[in-house]
Amino acid sequence: MNLHKTFIIVAIVCGVVGIVLGLANNIEHAGPFFIGFFLFLAIGFRKYQILKGYSYSLIIFSAVTLALYYPSNFVVFNGFKLSNLIIPLIQIIMFGMGSSMSIKDFIGVIKSPKGVGIGVMCQITIMPILGLVLANLSGFPPEIAAGLILIGCSPSGLASNVMSYLANANLALSITITTVSTLLAPFLTPLLMQVLAGAFVEIDMMAMMWGIVKMVIFPIGAGLIFNKVFKNKVKWINEIMPLISMFGIAVIIVIITAAGRDSLLSMGLLLILLVFIHNALGYLLGYWAGRIFRLSERDCRTLSFEVGMQNGGLASGIAKEMGKIATLGLAAGVFGPLMNITGSALASYWHRNVPNNKTSSNLE
Predict the structure, then answer these.
(1) pLDDT at 259 (0 to 100)
(2) Chain-centre distance of CA 37, in angstroms?
């Protein structure tokens, strides 16, 4: 029997045992089986082209389950608070983003002002407003509700670029929108949070701005300089940084899950539902905003991912800077793995439906 099929069968067995234990009121002993279900399924999916895109998300779910069942292992280690790793990990991820860029990437703003302008405007309006509406409807404690606004006020991340590539969208436009929205984040995210979330949680705009500068501008700037000085001399950096970024995001999500475990268990299903609605409406409204402004199908797909997929890692870092990782950062911890699942599904669907028209933005 194919080894990967064996892993899938083992995963199904683990899942069934976990469900049986749960139905028998033994859910506290089902943890290892649920962890095994996600992990073995992730390994089994690697063999199949149509499924391999879900492997990383399944690994994330396995890690989240691990954190939910054994949270004490991911809060403090030998007296060291693991939440202190969040900001350095984000800085490493942002350095990787900068090291993969060059000045040429910014020329895209000049070549395609329409596509980039519409994308950035959608990014800073649709998701923050949706976050505010959902926060008011949620009935959550103020700091947890504000987390829905925070994830909406964050820029798009590298995941949107990957999904745009898989979906036959306009990758160059995606990268440009991500870059511009990320560089604007130190100014726009604190402003949006002050205006939209001020009623939920106290916002120190200057402190938040400085925190984002440390997490975004400095590392990206260092990455740009690194790329300029060592271009073509250390190509392995561009190959290994995506893997480091994926690992870093996984660690951040696990730490947040462990820190906010009690809150997550008490309101988990509702929080997951609201985050899903936030994410799905971002895809939908981003796509139709492109249609309204008569962008091409490829550009509309790009806007869908750029609006619907947020930088959960950065949102988590902001929550950590504010000392509210277990409350304000909870929505970001849920949003990250969920958007990878929904994004992969949407990208797979669009990948099978190649658009015939050329992009109107001419940004290729």
Answers:
(1) 78
(2) 23
Query: With helix as H, strand as E and coil as C, how does the chain read?
Result: CCHHHHHHHHHHHHHHHHHHHHHCCCHHHCHHHHHHHHHHHHHHHCCCCCCHHHHHHHHHHHHHHHHHHCHHHHCEECCEEHHHHHHHHHHHHHHHHHHCCCHHHHHHHHHCHHHHHHHHHHHHHHHHHHHHHHHHHHCCCHHHHHHHHHHHHCCCCHHHHHHHHHCCCCHHHHHHHHHHHHHHHHHHHHHHHHHHHCCCCCCCHHHHHHHHHHHHHHHHHHHHHHHHHHCCCCCHHHHHHHHHHHHHHHHHHHHHHHHCHHHHHHHHHHHHHHHHHHHHHHHHHHHHHHHHCCCCHHHHHHHHHHHHCCCHHHHHHHHHHCCCCCCCCHHHHHHHHHHHHHHHHHHHHHHCCCCCCCCCCCCC
* Per-residue pLDDT reduced to its tens digit, 351-363: 777 776 544 444 5
Angle at alpha carbon of residue 8, lines to 1 and 64, rounded to 5°: 155
Bridge partner list, 81: 76
**Cβ 51 vs Cβ 45: under 8 Å:** yes
* Token digits of residue 24: 């028998």
Closest-CA residue to 120 (of 186, 163, 178): 178
Q: Which two tokens stand for residue 260?
A: 């906010």
**Higher pLDDT, residue 318 or 355:** 318
Identify the bridge partners of residue 80 per DSSP, sorted by sequence position.
77
* Distance in angstroms (rounded) separating the CA atoms of residues 250 and 113: 34
- Residue 328 backbone dihedrals phi, psi, to 5 degrees: -65, -30
Q: What is the pTM of this model?
A: 0.79
| CATH class of residue range 79-351 | mainly alpha
The burial of 1, by beta-carbon neighbours within 10 Å (0-12 exposed, 13-18 middle, 19 or more buried), is given as exposed
Of 126, 125, 151, nearest in space to 138 by CA: 151
d(CA 200, CA 133): 13
pLDDT digits (tens, 9 = 90+) for 45-57: 888 777 777 787 7
